[in-house]
Amino acid sequence: MPQKPMRLPPLKGLRVRAPLDKKTESPCVAMMSSLLGFNTSGCAALENALRTCMDSPPPQDTPRNTINFHLARMYDRVILSGRRKR
């Protein structure tokens, strides 16, 4: 006996979620933590390194992915084409 095809529930919208492991930290966090946990004799060099790190411009963010914009734009075409086949 042939099996019935699996039917998916209707979608409210198409969307791709961003990965959760993309949290970026400041590049100066490592220097600051080493400065706080270091003895007083070595603080001068670490302080200068931290100052240069803080004075440098922040790294440029990567451009955002536009896939959700395009999925939202194509949503009506995808849903309507699926309904016509019934």
Automatic annotation (TrEMBL):
GO terms for biological process: mitochondrial translation. It comes from the Eukaryota. GO terms for cellular component: mitochondrial small ribosomal subunit. One of its GO terms (molecular function) is structural constituent of ribosome. PANTHER family: 37S RIBOSOMAL PROTEIN MRP10, MITOCHONDRIAL, SMALL RIBOSOMAL SUBUNIT PROTEIN MS37. This is 37S ribosomal protein mrp10, mitochondrial. It comes from Verticillium dahliae (Verticillium wilt). The lineage of its organism: Eukaryota, Fungi, Dikarya, Ascomycota, Pezizomycotina.
